[in-house]
Amino acid sequence: MSFPEDFRLISYLSRLEHAARFPLSSSYPESMSIDTLFELAGKEHRAPFMQTVLDYPPLRGTPELLEAIASTYRHITPQQVISFAGADEAIYASFQMLLEPDDHAVVITPTYQSLESVPLSRGSVTGVALDENNDWALEVEKVRTALRENTKVLAINFPHNPTGALISRQQLTDLVDICRARGIWIFSDEVYRLTEFDPADRLPQVADIYERGISLNVTSKAYGLPGLRIGWVACQDDAWMLKLERMKQYLSICNSMPGEFLTTMALNARAPILERVMARSRSQRAALTEFLARYPHLFRLSVPKAGVLAFPRYLGAEGAEAFATTLVAETGVMVIPSVTYASELTPVSEDFLRIGFGRENLEQSLVEMGKWLDRR
Ligand SMILES: Cc1ncc(COP(=O)(O)O)c(C=O)c1O
After folding, report:
1. Is the CB of 255 under 6 A from ligand 1?
2. Looking at ligand 1, which atom is closest to the CA of residue 219?
3. 53 and 207 in contact (C-beta within 8 Å)?
4. 18 pLDDT band (50/70/90 cuts)?
5. How do residues 67-110 score in pLDDT, each as one tens digit?
6. InterPro entries given for it (predicted)?
7. pLDDT tens, position by position, 3-14
8. Torsion over CA of 88, 167, 186 and 207, rounded to 10 degrees?
9. Could you please report the per-residue DSSP string of 338-366?
10. Is 220 close to ligand 1, i.e. is its CB under 6 Å away?
11. I want to staple 348 with a disulfide (CB 3.0 to 4.6 A). Which of 105, 110, 234, 298 is the partner?
12. Is 128 helix (H, G, I), strand (E, B) or coil?
């Protein structure tokens, strides 16, 4: 594979999202102004923010940021965290440091493309597909079968983009046990953690429960603050974190000081921020589910257990990609066809649509889409 190959989802978004009048394409919830963030976190932070000196922050992050991030884990200390320019930089850096050319990785599909493309650029990769006919369930046994002598890492992403699926705690424990027995790392993309509609579904963070667990997170999803561009990796293994730190020396080196300040503030005041996101997600998931149920001949949905993405199967004769193209051309409502989730590892059906339901525009977009569907 020649790297970098086209990031199909990002290309699709770049081509259409800014021109679409009603984009239902976002993978993140409605964001907020800096003003609102100060209101939620406390106005006493305004003066220190304005006095922040625009130096380079330390490579791993300011002590305050690392402390705030560590406080979101049960056992991770500030010394076991490295911040990055978003989750994407962290994905790139982590797989560069995890995989040598003779190594093998196992990746769950469908997947956010970089979790597959970056490992593929380093070595051989086997995909394990979630079951599209069974609410996107994972069969742990299939993961076990996919492992080879030289498997170095298993990459997982739960809550899952784009289906909102989750595995059970027992399944996560089983994956950790399988990997521990063979010394395999688990790279766990946990960017949708804290968006579970039933908190009982929430999984532990892999860095808390496994000495070779690497947890990825970011401000973009549960916190609804993608513009801060601060992601992070947490891991108990100091030697590996030192390698990861070296990789960052060649990438962003460090984040922006205002981004680190505001992220620290947001994480320290996370309860109202998370609650705000979840209140909207909860009511809008219900609105979208109800909307899709009005057209049972067109859509079949496995209701997402977390996140702000729904991934219904499109049943119309013309197929999901043609549907999405006509829909945006004729109404300005943009949804994303699953062809953008194509994988080199396993077949991914092109019959699905990714619909973001976390943004303020959902209600009006569904009105427009409904009028159009009813006319057809
Ligand atoms: C599963 C997953 N991982 C990582 C990322 C990257 O996050 P960011 O764009 O905030 O770097 C995304 C973004 O959509 C995602 O959905």
Report:
1. no
2. 10
3. no
4. confident
5. 999 999 999 999 999 999 999 999 999 999 999 999 999 999 99
6. Aminotransferase_I/II_large, PyrdxlP-dep_Trfase, PyrdxlP-dep_Trfase_major, PyrdxlP-dep_Trfase_small
7. 888 999 999 999
8. 80
9. GGGG--SSS---S-BEEEE--STTHHHHH
10. yes
11. 110
12. strand
Closest CA to 157 of 125, 123, 114: 114
Containing 108, the helix (H) or strand (E) segment is strand 104-109
Where are the domains positioned within the chain? Answer: 8-33+272-375, 37-270
pLDDT at 3 (0 to 100): 84
Q: Is the pLDDT of residue 66 over 90?
A: yes
- Is the omega angle on the peptide bond into residue 304 within 30 degrees of 0, that is, cis? no
Please give the number of the atom of ligand 1 that sits closest to the Cα of 88: 11
The rounded Cα 48 to chain-centroid distance in angstroms is 31
* Three-state DSSP class for residue 107: strand
Burial bucket for residue 34 (CB in 10 Å: 0-12, 13-18, 19+): middle
Span from the CA of 87 to the centroid of ligand 1 (angstroms):
6
- Evaluate whether the domain defined by 8-33+272-375 bears CATH number 3.40.50.1000: no
If one residue of 218, 230, 354 were mutated to test the ligand 1 pocket, choosing by the most ligand atoms within 8 A of its CB, it would be 218
What is the rounded CA–CA span in Å between residue 350 and residue 339?
Answer: 5
Q: Which atom of ligand 1 is nearest to the CA of 89?
A: 11
With H, G, I as helix, E, B as strand and everything else as coil, classify residue 102: coil
Domain 37-270 has CATH 3.40.640.10: yes
Q: Give the position, in ligand 1's atom list, of the atom nearest the Cα of 90.
A: 11
Distance, CA of 283 to CA of 355 (rounded, Å): 15
